[in-house]
Structures are given as structure tokens and as C-alpha cells.
Amino acid sequence: MNNQLEKDLVISVKDVSKKFCRDLKRSLFYGIQDIASEIIGKPRQSEELRSQEFWALKDVSFQLKKGDALGLVGANGAGKSTLLRIISGLINPDTGVINVTGRVAPLIALGAGFNPILTGRENIYANMSILGLSKQEIDKNFDSVVDFAEIWDAIEAPVQTYSSGMSARLGFACAIHIEPEILLVDEVLSVGDIKFKMKCHRRLAKLQEKGTAFILVSHNSHSILNICNKAIYLKQGQLIMSGEAEAVVNKYEEDLAFSEGKDGRSKAIMRLREKPSHESSGLDITSIFFRDEQGNILETPLSGKPAYLCVECQANQHFEDINVGVKIRAILGEQDVVLYLTSNNDSCLLEITPGKTEIQLQMSQLGLSPGRYTARIYLRQGVRSFDIIESFRFIVETSEIMSRCLFYQPRNWQTIKLD
Ligand SMILES: Nc1ncnc2c1ncn2[C@@H]1O[C@H](COP(=O)(O)OP(=O)(O)OP(=O)(O)O)[C@@H](O)[C@H]1O
């Protein structure tokens, strides 16, 4: 490996696997068995699964350099938290090697490391000293931590009286003030209001400029794409894809969208997970699908025929000047954008009232040629972004011969008699 790259590496994970046991009694028994084997000098059976065991992580490898921001995506139970716990040294892998260079600040569970009966002030001292700061250094940073967490009046109250948002803010403030080389963030950014999230994002960008590397776990693709340049996608403990964040998030969302469909076909309706209130931006997309002119749901729109792209959303208040963007790419081929429409460019800003609304992009003759497509759909108001769906996948079919056409051309044929 080249020297500079080696010098910049802060995390190197090589072939890491971790197994767990579904049965607690058995797990305790295996624990005792492993200790006994170690005492008598017998090698542990690290590579094999015993009854009721499963791989929470299997042969995962990746590297992280200074200043890298890595998003970790995957469904529930994919192994994301297990990986963070291994990197932060809370648990050991069964096989594989991990090298971590520098101070790690783990922000793993909400209010991680806080003692609920101690006050905010006491917890700041306890937490930051565990993360490696001296009393003098904490004294110096104390006011800035409280300011950042915005819990001025409550700082002398026990942390058990804090809301989940307050504890998360305090945890985040402590972690960033130790200026770690590596920051591990597990869903913490999903707590708190938009203003606080923006503040965190700005602070993370500053830390990143100074060379802090971080790993962010989030179910919110928007957060990952806003913050991370790289990402890895885990599925049932296996590393499915790693690389540039947008490509990895696209793959993850495509898999999510297709996971219930048969034979890789799209389902007629893409339903989105209902967001808990702390994740919602106030205007969330709840489902996406096509209708025909009569209002029937279309599983596969047809080239040249009417197709209404419907974006159903849920608003918790009245919104004006909403801009809907639809960016469509062909899945096979060069991944170039084939169609990019925004209601704003069409001088059509929408008004959304509280409750459920269906926004329709009405295309009287669909111009897309037959094939598989993925659409990125977003709702914005000026520069404020509400919701983004990275990958609504659909298939366009045709009832005509169009094999050599790049797009559908509406047309008629006729003859005109000239003499
Ligand atoms: N201590 C443990 N003992 C037994 N099984 C465990 C233990 N910790 C995690 N698991 C299991 O390992 C698998 C991976 O869990 P993990 O928490 O890493 O997933 P995750 O991707 O972080 O999920 P989520 O998105 O729901 O937080 C899950 O099946 C989980 O039930």
C-alpha cells in the first residue's frame, strides 16, 4: 500500500465476522465452553456455527481515511450496530482484524454513557473524561458544550428528567467537543428539530475539514447523502456493496423497493415507512405509484399512453409554494438522467393542506421508451428540503414495436392528395 494512504488510514476492517446465539442459556454455556477451551490451550471454534448461532457479521472488510464520512445502511438487524460496537471496542469480533488509529467517540445509543440520576453537569464531566479529556480541558469546554446542547437551565437537573432530544443533544455536544479522530454516530442525528440537525450537520462538516472521520448509521437516506461521501450496505451481516454514497444508497433503496416484488418486477405501489414524529420534516411522502386517466392504479405504465405519476404525502400543517422534483434514470445503460421535471420549472408551485394529499404529475402521453427506470422524487420549498425518495423503480412497457426508439414520439400518419 502506498505510504500516504497508509498514514491517512484511521480504520481498517479486514474479514471481520461476529456470531451471536439466539438462545440466552446456550449462549452462556458457549461462553463457559470458550473460556474452558482457552484455559486448556485448545483453539476456539471461531469459524463454525454451533446450534442456535448465526452470523451477525460475516467477512466484512473496508477502510476509512482521515476526513472520510461513511454512511452505514441496511435493514433492521443487518449488523450495523454490531459493526459500530466492534469498532468502538465494546465487543470483540470472532474472526478478522480491526485496526483503529486515534481517539474514537462513540455516540451509539441515545444518551449513551449517561447516568440518569446524575445531573447534566455531572454527566458532562463523567462522559468527557471517559472519552479522554482531563478536568482542565473539560472546564475549558464546559460552557461551549452546554451552549451547543442548548440545555442552559436544565444543566443542574438529573438527566432522567431530560427528553430524548435533550439527551441526544448533550451526547452529541460532548462527543464533538473532544475533537475525536473518529466519530461513530448511530441514529442520533434523527432526534431533535430541524434547526438542531442543521447545526449538527454544519459542525460535522467543520470536523470533517479538520480531518475527523465518521461513520453514520441512519435509516434516513437524506441524512446519509447530506453528510457522507462513501457508504456501505449490509444485509444479514454480509457486505453487499461499498463505494460512493449515492450509488450505495440507490442500491439499498432499490432492494427495499423490490424486496416484496416477484422476479425483480416493481410492485404497483411503493409504500414508505411511516416516519416517527422526531424524523418527520412535517411533509412526508407516504407512497408513490402510477394511475391511468380513469384513476385506476397502473402496475406498468405504457409508452405513449396516459400515465399519471402520483406522489401521496402527509402534511402536519399548511404549506405553500411546494416544488416537486422528479428525476428519472434508466436502470440499465449509462445511468444518465432521461427526464428531469420540476413543478417549479413549470411555474407551478403547489399548495398542500394538512392531512393526506395526492400530487399528480399528469403525462398525457408517456414519452419514456420501454425499459426499467428509477426515479428520485423530492419535495422542497425554496432551498428547504422536506422529503426525498431516492429510488422509485418502475417498468415501462409498450403495445407497439419500439425496439429502436430512444423515446416515444407522439405521431399520426396520413396522406394528402396534391392534385
Ligand atoms: N448481544 C446479542 N445477542 C444475540 N443477538 C444479538 C446481540 N446483539 C445483536 N444481536 C442480533 O444480531 C443481529 C444484528 O443486530 P444489529 O443490532 O447489529 O442490527 P442493526 O443493523 O443495527 O439493526 P437496527 O437497524 O434495527 O438497529 C440482529 O439479528 C440482532 O438481533
From TrEMBL:
Gene Ontology molecular function terms on file: ABC-type transporter activity; ATP binding; ATP hydrolysis activity
ABC transporter domain location: 30-261
GO cellular component term of the entry, any: membrane
Transferase listed as a keyword: no
UniProtKB keywords: ATP-binding, Nucleotide-binding, Transport
Domain of life (superkingdom): Bacteria
Family statement drawn from the similarity comment of this UniProt entry: Belongs to the ABC transporter superfamily.
Name of protein: ABC transporter ATP-binding protein
Source organism (scientific name): Hyella patelloides LEGE 07179
Species lineage: Bacteria, Bacillati, Cyanobacteriota, Cyanophyceae, Pleurocapsales
